[in-house]
Structures are given as structure tokens and as C-alpha cells.
Amino acid sequence: HPQNQINVWMPGSTIGILGGGQLGRMMILEGRKMGYRFVTLDPSPDCPGGQAADRHITAGFEDVEAARLLAEESDLITYEFENAEDTVVEMLESSASLPQGSRLLRLTRHRIREKRALEGAGIPVAPYRKVTDPGVFREAVNSLGFPCVLKTTTGGYDGKGQWVFRSWGEVEAFHGPEPEREYILEKWVPFVKEISVIVARSVRGEVKAFPPAWNTHRRQILHQSVVPAPVEPSVLERADALARRVAEKLDVVGLIAVEMFLLEDGTLYVNELAPRPHNSGHYTFEACVTSQFEQHIRALCGLPLGSTRLLTPAVMINILGEDTEQFQRRMTDLPPEVKVHWYGKMENRPGRKMGHLTVLGSTLEEALATAERLQGTLP
Ligand code: ADP
Ligand code: MG
């Protein structure tokens, strides 16, 4: 695109966010520093994003009229989750400025479409089969072997809508798949580590990637992200190149998080994509020159991207519903290199992301040791 056709939104412009969760909240906290104004749309009147926004619209994600109101009040629009209704997203795309477009959202909210797009871009993914009914399911298990994991193609997050199978006995005992739903069966990847790279591509086509994070999960929910990822330099380089390739080939605008599996022999498979700020990038708030949230805003508003240089080693720890009581007891003797993020969610449920801690250190060993001490009292 010629430079003069690219919109630049200066500080003072209003950014509308579809969704009012913690990702929206952190986008707002960063954007406000730069003087942007924010309107959020979310069904919950007191959501994390709404608490930080200039204005909040309480409405469902299927409410086209409410989305139209969001568009009217905003100079540009972004989203913080993938599951908005197509009709809403299409309306926003046609009536307002949605710099990210709707194509990437449509791809990444559907696991099979996403895998096909990745394959089309020459990016390795785990072997998979589309599953539409119990007969096809058994055939797919037969061809992929054990272990394998069945996932709903849409609507899943934090391991929800996923079932792992290790034997035919487990397949027999499984009540499903539901006939009306579409699923994907994936071969279980015997990874040695999971890593992720968040990369930004601006409306001007500029691309910058953040340093790869090493992620560990508890019950399929992200538990900890460690940066710099303790892997060979050649793995870091390849992870960076893969993520950039995804951003370029899929014409990304804004952020895309690329989750990867690292195998014993050094192979990297892409697991999944998220076209938004990502939990594994929260460390950038304190540990990089530019946070993922600021980068997202710069990318959408047509500003030059900020440096992604790592300033310090960091360990990000998620605080889930079941951790909050112990965490609150720890608050009074928090080590000085620990930064607290609390999302202001009203309801505390097990497995729900309530906040996170970022542990810094002059070396990674130091940060890891502090993180371990801190978690001595967590479950
Ligand atoms: P979501 O994050 O949307 O819940 P993911 O596909 O990322 O879904 O799955 C969550 C976690 O489950 C992954 O980070 C990984 O730890 C594990 N997992 C998912 N699919 C596979 C697979 N094919 N092989 C090995 N582990 C997997
Ligand atoms: Mg994931």
C-alpha cells in the first residue's frame, strides 16, 4: 500500500474494544499512557476492561446494535478474544475501521481452518483429522494412533473442549463426539518444551517479534512463562523466523501469538495461533522496552513499532481462582522484584485467571529462584 493511504490515529483518538477481559484491560492501561481513549463492549457491567475504559457498553457479543454503537463512538476498533459472532464482526468491518480485518479472526477461531492456513504457508503442524461423527472419530483414532487429543473446532480455550485418549478403552468410555458438532483429532506431540512467540505487524507492514517464551501448563492452562527461553540459540532463531513467516504469510495486522511445540530432535511444530495479546506475552510489560499491549496499539494506529528488546530476565506466573487466597497472604511480604497484576474480576472460580505476577531478576537463575520461593505456598 502506498504510504499516503494508510490511516494514522494520533493519541487522543478513541479505540473501541470488543470484549472486556484482562487483555482489554491491559491494552487500555498501556494505551492511556499514550493518550488514547477507550470504549469497551462486554456483557458484564463491571468487567476488567470496563473498569479501566473511558466508557463501557454493557451488551452481548451477538448484539449487532450495540456493536454499531461501539463503532459510532470509536475511531478504530480491535478485539481481545476470538469468539465474536460473524454478523457483528462483519458489521464492524463494513461500518467502522477494523484495521485487523475479519479474515484472520475467521481463520484462527476455527482449529481446522487455522491448521490449513498454516500448512498452506508451509508451516509444520501436528498430524490431524477432521471428525464429524463417531464413525469418522474411530477411523481417525485408528490412523493417528495413541495418544491423541480430540478438540472442538471452535470455542475452546484453556484446554476446555479437549479430550486426550491413550487407549481404545478410553475411546469406548468416551460419551461423544456429539453428532452436531465438528471436531479435530490431533496426534499427541511428544514435545520437550512449549514455546511461544508474539509478533506484531503494523498497518504499514513493519514486523517485529518479541523474544520467545518457554511456557509450562497446569491442567492445560498456562502456568508459567520463562524468558529468555532456555533453549539452544538455533531454536530461538527458528522460532522467531516461524512466527515472522506466520505474520507475513497470513497478512497479519496487529499482534499474533504463535504457540509452538519443540521436539527432541529440534523440530518445531506450530500448535495454535491467537490474533491478539497473549497470556505468554504478559512478561513484556516489565521485561521489554515495549509491551505487547503498546505494540498492538502502535501497529493498529499506524505508528512505528517499538523495540522488543529484552531488558531483564523474567518469569510470569498466572494466579488462578484456586491460588488467590494463598497469593493474598503473600502480598504483605512480596519480594521487591515481583510485579503484581490483578484483573479486578468480581467472581473467583477455580481455573479462572485472576491476575499474574512477573518476577524479575538480574539473571534467569535468580528470577527462577524467586519464582520458586514465591510458589512454595501455592498449590
Ligand atoms: P487452548 O490453549 O486453546 O486451550 P491448545 O491447543 O493450545 O488449546 O491446548 C492446550 C495445551 O494442551 C497445549 O498448550 C499443550 O500443552 C496441550 N496440547 C494440546 N494439543 C496437543 C498436542 N497435539 N500434543 C501435545 N500437547 C497438546
Ligand atoms: Mg493454547
From TrEMBL:
Pathway(s) where this gene product acts: Purine metabolism; IMP biosynthesis via de novo pathway; 5-amino-1-(5-phospho-D-ribosyl)imidazole-4-carboxylate from 5-amino-1-(5-phospho-D-ribosyl)imidazole (N5-CAIR route): step 1/2
Catalytic activity: 5-amino-1-(5-phospho-beta-D-ribosyl)imidazole + hydrogencarbonate + ATP = 5-carboxyamino-1-(5-phospho-D-ribosyl)imidazole + ADP + phosphate + 2 H(+)
Record keywords, A-Z: ATP-binding, Ligase, Nucleotide-binding, Purine biosynthesis
Gene Ontology CC entries for this record: cytosol
Record GO terms (molecular function): 5-(carboxyamino)imidazole ribonucleotide synthase activity; ATP binding; metal ion binding; phosphoribosylaminoimidazole carboxylase activity
Stretches assigned to the ATP-grasp domain: 115-301
Stated role: Catalyzes the ATP-dependent conversion of 5-aminoimidazole ribonucleotide (AIR) and HCO(3)- to N5-carboxyaminoimidazole ribonucleotide (N5-CAIR).
Family: Belongs to the PurK/PurT family.
Protein name, UniProt field: N5-carboxyaminoimidazole ribonucleotide synthase
Organism: Melghirimyces profundicolus
